């Protein structure tokens, strides 16, 4: 038919003819991009008449979600560049909102006006109109969730729903929404026909980190500004749980460190041009930046647990060694077992027996890329709801890492337990029980270490069943164990130690290691 040949003749390829998939500049997101291409663009590559014969409707929406700095905006930008279509309309969610009644909805309608007009003119041969919403959670919150509001958010959601998949359906649009809070978005927006392709852009794995670092150092490599001792593969191993933005920041920090070597700071700041020509970014620059400048948001804050073990671990006897050995076995189980992605252990014992220090030591020795301590001292003055939210955030962050360790310290204090009454926070208890039993997402592994001085209380609350195993941490119980501890601490002379040994020989002792350290320090002041 003449009309058919004309359609074929005029039809342009949806993919830009000069587009090179290898030079996209998106590191570590190959699988995600190929999944998006399969779901959202495969039907658009085929001629419209074939798509029409199949009765196939194009995917109209994609939701990219994940932690900040992992490449959501970059992915959307590259999709726009790849398509042989108009320049994408990029909108920040809050820009839609307007103080005047009806203006927010009008802003939504304006975004779709060009697509509507072109579809009326060209029908199936209309080009793709891409609309990118950054921070889409700002305008698409659950309807009815904002108490006391004027309902403006609800009407914006309604308007967006009707434009994407309303009565007058548009088949020439692609809406890309981006957020790091998918839980806030109205469910109606996420059903098929709207933002139906939901893609998590998570933290890159080792291969992804290698690609990202390679992309950000390629210019330096081309101009011989990268020293030969820089091994990108080594850096990829060392930067566990770094996001794409943090890896870019690491490269920037290393460049600044290298440049700083060639700046003369006397009365005035000037560049030593003779040495500047030999500027090279070295392995040392990268590792100095790794040590001092860039720390991953979903990583391990060493200061967090270093304060709990500032006096080291005093191995005063077999009980301490046994706790550390059992902890190491549980760490290995978490790393190696595919059947138990969630492993939890409760260290219980009398006060001052060193449970928190042992938990922090097990966590430190695990070398997991994500270690967080959930401690009541960070939640002083929190309401019950705020405590639950703080605990949930720690666990949600842990689920984003492939290997994580969460130390839940002093559980009875977290629960606001008071023996007079007795009283405790049931809301926090129920939240903690859910978090302790919830398995991490597929491919992620989590070790939880809890500590308590009131095993009997947790038994009554039926919390012991939430842990995989329980390990007892005793006090120093014999004179021999006390002498071993004093020898390891090294605060007393031989004569003083022998006097103490004579007094405690064969006698029962009952003292916690923390209490012993305090008594020793007090005696040294006399």
From TrEMBL:
From which domain of life does this come?
Answer: Eukaryota
Tell me the ranges covered by the AAA+ ATPase domain, including all copies.
Answer: 58-205, 341-477
Output the Gene Ontology terms for molecular function: ATP binding; ATP hydrolysis activity; metal ion binding
Tell me which PROSITE patterns the record gives. Answer: AAA
User: Per UniProt, which keywords does this protein have?
Assistant: ATP-binding, Cytoplasm, ER-Golgi transport, Hydrolase, Magnesium, Metal-binding, Nucleotide-binding, Protein transport, Repeat, Transport
Keyword hit for Transferase? no
**The protein's name in its UniProt record:** Vesicle-fusing ATPase
